[in-house]
Specification:
The protein is of the alpha+beta class. It is built from five helices and seven strands, in the order βααβββαβαβαβ. It starts with 16 loop residues before the first strand and ends with a strand.
């Protein structure tokens, strides 16, 4: 499987593109603005994620500034990446597009940027032959993800439940068919 998405047309302003190491300072600013210090993950963690062969993260820029990103990778159903964890390759063939983190600058909210990141990545996941997309819903976002077709899925594996707990109270694992 390829590591990155096809390059979008440069004539489309604000089109998503593959997240690159030079985007990390802007990503960290978006992350802090959206989540506060409790959920901020370091630039070092994100750099390791970008180097992962299963990484497929995207970014959106406006006027040269990162305004939204979607940290994602090819994984396995039922596998949770803990907060501050790396994007590890699954033991077998990936079957799930795992959405680890999506954030949009508050000043850019309501402009369709989240959908502009999600739609092409869902389509690419299906083209790769992945059957599911999964995520951990935090900070009261469960209703948002339910409106996008995700449903809460219990985790049978104790290690995965422990990883889910790293996100704090109210975090739930959610799944959607691609």
């Amino acid at each position: 499987m390829p590591n990155s998405l096809p390059s979008p047309s440069s004539s489309v302003p604000g089109a998503p593109r593959a997240l690159q190491p030079h985007d990390l300072p802007g990503l960290l600013q978006v992350q802090l603005a959206c989540y506060g210090e409790g959920f901020v993950e370091s630039g070092e963690v994100f750099a390791r994620r970008l180097a992962s062969p299963v990484n497929c993260s995207l970014v959106l820029e406006r006027a040269g500034q990162v305004c939204a990103y979607l940290a994602a990778y090819r994984s396995a159903r039922g596998k949770v990446t803990p907060l501050h964890g790396d994007f590890d390759s699954p033991a077998g063939d990936p079957d799930t597009l795992y959405l680890h983190d999506m954030a949009v600058l508050p000043a850019c909210a309501g402009q369709g940027l989240a959908q502009a990141l999600l739609a092409p990545l869902w389509a690419q996941g299906a083209a790769w032959g992945l059957r599911h997309t999964a995520l951990v819903s935090v900070q009261g976002s469960q209703g948002y993800w339910e409106r996008h077709g995700y449903a809460v899925q219990p985790l049978a594996d104790a290690l995965q439940r422990e990883r889910l707990a790293s996100y704090g109270e109210g975090a739930v694992y959610m799944l959607r068919e691609l």
